Batch of 3 targets.
Target 1
Amino acid sequence: MLSDIIRRHLDFHATPNAMAAMEVDYPSGTSTGRHSHPRGQLLYAIEGVMIVRSDAGSWVVPPNRAAWLIAGVEHEVGMYGAVKIRTVFIDPATAPQLPDTSCVIEVSPLLRELIVAAVRIPVDYRQDSRDGRLMRLLLDELRTSDELPLHLPVPRDARLRTICEALTNDPGNSCTAAQWARQVGVAAKTVHRLFAAETGMTFAHWRKQARLLAALQRIASGERIIDVALDCGYASQSAFSAMFRRHFAVPPSAFYR
């Protein structure tokens, strides 16, 4: 199945048009494996949740959000729940003003409908046609989309990687930066300095982000919210729900509807 999908991708990169869209569905638990594209990729799922992983870190992509992946970035996509992907490949040379780093963006109702409509457009559409105008409107709407803080950067430093991998595997871990520093054999101030330099976040912010992304992934897999909250280090379900509302303006029970 995956080899067939990879062969299909080639047609969408070979077109002389700057943009081309395709659809593909995956069962829960599927992974695409590591790969890259010569074009930028707008990766959107009308159902299900995607976890995109690269050397730069990982992104959680729930419904009503999309991943923007810059051309050439090696990545892998994991599927949580049955995932129905609608993706748009964009030649970066002909589409300025798009993000120059991979990120997660908000998908407005208009952008959603444009993406869904784009997959029905043949790759050899004429620029002066209704299809060409729809694609240009999609690009305009994409340029105005807000970036979202759903990225968990991965540090290069081996000592920080040890800490980050442990927190990713056990997001409820409550060890302080000083305790982690002793475990990896450095001073606490070194841990704080390295987190700021390599991730752009404080230790506390990185851990909060790791907990949030772990929670999103587990909720998408159908786990009970109270179990997710406690396992991810929150004192109660109400504390977790309050944090969730601050980030997404909806309770966790409504997030994937």
Note: Residues 114 and 120 are 10 Å apart (CA to CA).
Target 2
Amino acid sequence: MTTDSQTPIHVIGGGLAGSEAAWQIAKCDIPVVLHEMRSVRTTDAHQTDGLAELVCSNSFRSDDANHNAVGLLHDEMRRLGSLIFECADANRVPAGSALAVDREGFSVAVQQAIEGNSLITIAREEITEIQPEEWGSTIIATGPLTSPDLSAAIINLTGDESLAFFDAIAPIVYKDSIDFDKAWYQSRYDKGDGADYINCPLNADQYDTFIQDLIEGEKVSFHEWEENTPYFEGCLPIEVMAERGPKTLSYGPMKPVGLTNPHDPEHKPAAIVQLRQDNALGTLYNIVGFQTKLTYGEQRRVFQKIPGLEKAEFARLGGLHRNTFINGPKLLSPTLALKAHSKVRFAGQITGCEGYVESTSIGLLAGRFAAFEQLGRDYPLPPAETALGALLSHITGGADASTYQPMNINFGLFPPIDRPLIDENGKKIKRLKGRDLKLAMSQRGREKMSDWIAQATYP
């Protein structure tokens, strides 16, 4: 097989997955053209034209590499030299056991790194056609906000209509507008620094009123073509959760466990609203789990009834946008290439993975698969026992194509533990469960990752 390290690989989309893919290709000394339509064309959710802008939460979720699958994926990405994780670690803000970032500083860091790489050219333009014959190797990493014209081009290329769902955005509050005579700092069960979240308590009457307001509040109306689009279960609007039952939120993002109100320690709140730091300065806090499709006026009316937020000023109100993804198990090969067009790969959320970390990881793999293929070399698939391998396997064939929906990384995607396990006394452990099982799967994954890294070296 001939090699061509001078022909550029085209990456469409400058989000997390596209930026990571471009970076990985350039590390193989292959030129990249990174196409990003912002600022030529905006989206319903982005605020800037910066690369890798975070439009929903500022959290990359748990950083626990021992007991959490996404934390294990964090560890793997760092070991593989991920640009996104290098910039995330450099711009992290307090978030207990989670990795959260100053979203503006993070995006600036990614853009500066990409702009400073002489092998990467950023083309600010909207791509409306896919040209594998003219371009050669191409990665589509346009994410959940793929433009209508490009969506149509993808449908024409794949011969299979894209699926879609709505993704909701949580509001952001200025910290100095929060009433700390009612709110207080504390992490649930005092994790992290013990004071990484701001908490606002609701008694039973306040909680009942809040639920009723969510259900009765005016919502964003749908276009006719959007009415039957399903939500992603991991990012439901708060009013949809409220409609599922009055206790749904108090057992979900508003659960009062692990927290004590110092203003009234004798009475346990019926529910607690938590806010998490959103920027390095600590001036902005997002309301955790409050993705919403309420209108802007209703958001102010309803959320300002929360104790401590009566005079809240919003840096950004919540919103709703349409998300598109392809049927990965049906359309993609194990190396993320279209089965019908081997020079075209997909990466990020458009493959049907869900979440910042998952999107970035699939971008990393797509970039390396494309680069090694262009150099005439095979890039080994990551073992299924690793977080990378488990996620890749799920979206390229492990999931049922007939019921395929977006999925976060979780230990349910990993192969079961099949080797005998011995405790500290030398006795065989019959059955692992809970945290012990998660720890065993994480340890196995790290061992497999070490072996794989030794094989998957750069050219």
Note: The two ends are 15 Å apart (CA to CA).
Target 3
Amino acid sequence: MDISIVVPVFNEEAFVEKSLTSLLNQTYAPKQLVVVDDGSTDNTVAVIRKVADAHPSVKLITSDDASVHAPGEKVVRAFRRGFDALSDDWDIVCKFDADIVFPDNYLEKLKDAFSSNNSLGMFGGLLTVANDDTWVIETISHKNHLRGPIKAYSRACFEDIDGIREVLGWDTLDELLALYHGYLVQTNKKLWVKHLRPTGASYSHSVAAAKGRLFYELGYGLFLGVLATMKWSFTQRGSLLASLGGFLGAWFSRKPKLVTAREARFIRRYRWSQIFSRFIS
């Protein structure tokens, strides 16, 4: 199976060399490795050029200007630039962040997982963070959710969900759409990767409001959406008032959704089934 990787970067000089080196030292080599700089203002590009000079398989795409900052959207725009630069011969496409260090068998495990199951649409490991002299699973991680920094898609799944979208919560939307189309989404709980820069624990008022709107845009419905908003605010320490305001504002104004009515019905049933299964277990 041919694996293609796109790594969006912005001001990652402290981490990008370690991350790329871990991908170049894999026991199963990627077919393509495209790094997309999104207008970095530090020495990120110089570091990547040094790696690319030693490894011609690394392709660097640069930009003089960073894309407009918007949570979720910015990184997807950079990914799409890299994706458009890929040749057409790939079976698996990966969107990896530049602050991740992968175990040397990561791509081999990924290849084996997709090769052994034609229904597998998305696959990845778990993010870990440094804790004194050891590595522990990142607090923000959910063991059944494949995190955005380490996404891998089969070709069929990626095409059926129409790629990833420039929205906050794209890495939730893509999973739900993959499940809607009948694909499996698998997180290998024994496959740990090192997250050199842990996910931020605080969220601005505007981001919290946008997160609330997202639950409406995913078709959650009123009661489920309020529950999801409250849970997110509690677990991620975001503003409950802002996130509820974002959700209810979108609800009462009936803003356009990111999903069709049929997809929304599936998403509601799936989310309620998750809630009920937790009570039963």
Note: The mean pLDDT is 91.
